[in-house]
Structure formats: structure tokens, C-alpha cells
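Two records follow; treat each independently.
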Amino acid sequence: WADHLERRYATRYGDLPTHDMLWEVARETRHSLRARLAVVHLIHEARGLDVAETMRAKCLRAQDSEAASMLDKNIADEVGHVAAGARWFRHLCRESAGGDLGGPDGDGEEAAAAEFLRLARAHYYGELKRPFNTELRREAGLP
């Protein structure tokens, strides 16, 4: 992907401010694995799922089928990354609650969702942008 960006668009990875975002998030969440999972996997990587179709369409309009193909492969990886982040986030929430997150259904989904919102408010700057790709998010195990 980085080689393609440089060849096609004369842009190197790291040239854009957004490329620093993961380092900034790592620094911001260095104290908490749950915070890092919430922000990196459940916000930023999930956002990649949300914009996948739009980015792919833009690549095709720019007649960049190579980038569209790369995005197709990347999305399958991103679904797995988001799913792993969600699984570990829920596990850590359960573990910190002594294995009991309660809730009417007993699965602790409400408590994990509340913890996600708390961490997002504390460590994510900006709004969670719509639209959400509910199909890919569901495939990744997000509610």
C-alpha cells in the first residue's frame, strides 16, 4: 500500500497528519489496554470498516483498480482486527468485574458498552462519525 501511494500519488506513508494518529493514540492510552482496545480497534479500525465502500468507490472513479483491490484485502483483515479487539475488550471488562458484568441477559454487553463510552469520552477526541457500516461491524462482532 505504501509503495503504491508513493508510485501513484507521490505521497509517502507519514506525509499526512493522520499517519501520526496511531502513535498519538498509543501515547494517550499507554496506561490502559482497555482504553487502547476501545480507541484503536473499536473506534479507528471500526471506522475503516465504515468508510471502506466510499474509499473503494473513490479509487475506482480515479481509475485506480489496484488500490481498490488492496482495499478489498485490507477490509477482510480489518474485520478480523476489530473482532479481536472487541473480544479482548469484553474479556478485560469481564475480568475486571470479577467475571460478572451482570445485565438482564447476563452477557455483560451493557456494562462493556458503558465502559467503551467512558473510555471513548476520555481518550478519543472528536465525534464518532456516521454513517456506520452495520453489516461489516456486525461481522466483526460489534453490537
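The next record belongs to a different protein.
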Amino acid sequence: MPRPQRPSVRVGDAAITCDVSEVAMVTTQLRRSQVLPRGCHKHKADLFASISLASSDILESLVSKFSLRGRADKFLSTALRVRAVRDSLIDHPELCDTLGYISDAADALRHLTPFVVDRAARDLRAVFCSDPSHSTPPSPSAPSSAS
């Protein structure tokens, strides 16, 4: 039985092809990704959109070529771990590495929001500022003069 057509979700300049069951989640994530984090320039936003689109296109190609099912037809990181996919890329280590980087970046974009990133930075500063042993780097000890 042929697979149903996967819809494309477009928000702003970004578009992602996904399963019907994922349309609401993808739409929400795309809307969030349109808000640039503090200090994020337009070229970085373009990179984020490029990563999202590329990972979606790569995943769609792998699903089509290898008839992937389950989590492997939803997540590029899982698809890249399928034996048939790994075996087909064995003679292309640089491509395999690059696909892994794209997958890692797509996973990070899926899990991170400007709020999460800002909160992590604030929490890290709070930890280091409240712990005197981390507030300043230790000074190097004077070399011993052995005569």
C-alpha cells in the first residue's frame, strides 16, 4: 500500500515536510524559530532554516530509498543509524560525518528555544557566581626553586 502524501508546513521563509500527525508540532516549532535569539543575526537564522530544510529533505530521501518505518521515518538521527543506511554510506565517510552534523544540528534546533538557551546561560552564571571556587580561576603556583 503506498504511503500517504506528506504535507509541507510553511512559516515565513521555512518549510518542512512532515507526517500529518506532526503538523501542529512542526508549525509551532517553525513559529518559534522565526523569533531570533538575542545576538542572532539574519545569516544565523538562514542557517537554522537551511538545517531544518536540509534535514527534512535528507530524511525524506532516506525514507523513500530504504522504506524506513517507526522512529527512523521521523528522525534523521535514527534513520542514519539504520544498518542499510550505514552500509550504503560506508564508502563515503565525509558525507556520513556531514550528515551526522546536520542531524545533530536539527536535533538541537528541535529541542532548543531562545528561552531555554537564555535560561541555561543565566543558570550557569548563577552557579559560577554563587560558588567561590568557580568565581575566579585559580592562580598558578610559583615554581619551586630546587637547588
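Discussion point: The helical segments are 23-33, 42-66, 76-79, 83-88, 93-111, 114-130, 132-135. How would you locate this feature using only the C-alpha cell line?
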